[in-house]
Design brief:
Length: 111
């Protein structure tokens, strides 16, 4: 059965906000907890723990910027709009490529 209209979560949220029943969604900028990294880890290809920390912080900053803009426009957060499999791929690409930058100088596998 088709409904005469459909409401997104953002539209429903904004309607409830206009009625004063919902507070605006707050987006917070996450920071890395550096104590959670294994400082004794021996990493290959001249990688450093700092490379991983920077890659993770870049992902945090990306989502903060994008989600702040989306919520400001009355839309859902990016992670609420994407299907889980897509979000998994986005996170995987965002984390693996920057962490691999220092290793690009090392010999590449031909396989």
């Amino acid at each position: 059965m088709l409904l005469p209209f459909s409401r997104t979560r953002a539209e429903a949220y904004n309607g409830a906000f206009a009625l004063g029943t919902v507070r605006p969604m707050t987006i917070t900028r996450n920071q890395i907890t550096t104590g959670k990294f294994n400082e004794a880890a021996k990493l290959p290809y001249e990688l450093r723990l700092e490379d991983f920390k920077l890659a993770i912080q870049d992902v945090y900053d990306f989502f903060f910027d994008v989600n702040s803009h989306l919520v400001e426009k009355g839309l859902d957060r990016l992670d609420d709009m994407l299907r889980p499999a897509i979000m998994s791929g986005v996170l995987s690409d965002m984390l693996t490529e920057p962490a691999a930058w220092p290793a690009w100088e090392s010999p590449r596998s031909q396989h």
